[in-house]
Design goal:
It is a single chain. By secondary structure, this protein is α/β, with parallel strands linked by helices. Helices cover 38% and strands 18% of the residues. It is built from 13 helices and nine strands. Strands 1-2-3-5-4-6-7-8-9 form a nine-stranded mixed beta sheet, sandwiched between helices. The longest helix is centred in the first third of the chain and has 19 residues. The protein is globular and about 65 Å long.
């Protein structure tokens, strides 16, 4: 038999030998607090949050449109000096004092950024993507009464770099280019997205519809990545739903190494797996949505998801908050389901 010259087996052995140095192992609330504080500091360093610079938000509303059951505003805020983020704010119809709590609806790939999440399907390619991934969860949350914030992540929608610019490339993203520019400067795509959403939380706190209300965050795929990191590092997120992005990195990102560059943070796997990052969210409510036939789960399918849930759940048990951690599995591919999401958000975001 010919000698194999591939290197994946070697990297798997490296991960198993020295990965997860900050794995969740706390046995008491005091141990949990010590682990949480140490790991948060390290995670912020790894994704490069200390490099980002704050700027005045300078919010400006550039467009207002009445939609089915809600008003849609296009807003631009400044997240860093010289860096701006466009977003849609969806405000349900009805009396101001009856508005539901604010929720960020973060998008994933193949979405045109915020377009798919708010259900803008004028382009037939967008219409197909929305149908494929059940993508318009931001619009549906607004129709269910939540005030919904749908931003463009860096590299998507209106924020694509020049390599992906142009209306013919609306479904493309610039994660690869952003990662190549950022990593040598000590930053990461995950860090950019987390920073921008932290600034969005600052803006949400300013809005009259959402001021002094608990805030939620939901997202599919890359939107699940954004929800995971934001909720882990910013306790202003009072409730989270991660869909299509909760699996062990060895199967889903090391073996399936052609996944998007936004998933890869230098030295991260030496410190933690996804379930460890999610344990930082405890005791705040967290729901995991996973499709049984999602190829991103990796070759072992749902076993890879269940292993990560088994890493996160002890954090909730240790803090006496087991009811705040839930999961929902459904038959389907890489898509949003949402069957239990609105009830979950209502339960935990009610004041």
């Amino acid at each position: 038999m010919p000698q194999p010259f591939q290197t994946e087996a070697y990297f798997r052995a490296c991960f198993r030998a020295r990965g997860r140095s900050l794995a969740y192992r706390a046995q008491s609330p005091a141990e949990h607090a010590a682990w949480r504080d140490a790991f948060r500091v390290r995670l912020r360093e790894l994704i490069g949050l200390h490099h980002f610079q704050q700027a005045p938000l300078n919010p400006r509303i550039t467009e207002t449109l009445q939609c089915a059951g809600y008003r849609r505003e296009r807003v631009v805020i400044d997240v860093e000096p010289g860096v701006s983020m466009p977003l849609y704010v969806l405000i349900p119809d009805g009396p101001a004092d009856r508005l539901g709590p604010p929720v960020i609806a973060a998008h994933g790939h193949g979405s045109g950024g915020k377009l798919a999440v708010v259900g803008i399907d004028d382009d037939p390619r967008m219409r197909a993507k929305i149908a494929e991934h059940n993508y318009a969860y931001g619009a549906r949350a607004a129709q269910a009464g939540f005030v919904v914030f749908c931003p463009d992540a860096r590299g998507f929608g209106e924020r694509r770099e020049w390599q992906s610019d142009g209306p013919e490339k609306i479904l493309e993203s610039s994660c690869f280019q952003l990662s190549h520019m950022a990593l040598p400067l000590g930053m990461s795509v995950a860090g950019m997205w987390t920073w921008d959403l932290m600034r969005l939380l600052d803006y949400i706190e300013m809005r009259p519809e959402s001021r002094e209300k608990p805030m939620g965050c939901i997202g599919l795929s890359g939107g699940g990545l954004q929800t995971l990191y934001l909720s882990a590092l910013d306790e202003r997120v009072a409730c989270a739903v991660i869909s299509g992005y909760f699996y062990g990195v060895e199967d889903s990102l090391l073996h399936q190494s052609n996944n998007c560059a936004c998933n890869y943070v230098p030295l991260l796997w030496e410190n933690a797996d996804m379930g460890d990052i999610a344990a930082l969210i405890a005791p705040r409510p967290l729901m995991i949505e996973a499709a049984r036939q999602d190829p991103l789960n990796g070759p072992r399918g749902m076993d890879n998801v269940l292993e990560q849930i088994a890493i996160t759940r002890p954090a909730y048990i240790t803090l006496g908050a087991d009811e705040c951690f839930d999961s929902f599995f459904f038959d389907g591919g890489h898509q949003w389901n949402g069957e239990k999401v609105h009830d979950w958000l209502r339960r935990w975001l009610a004041k």
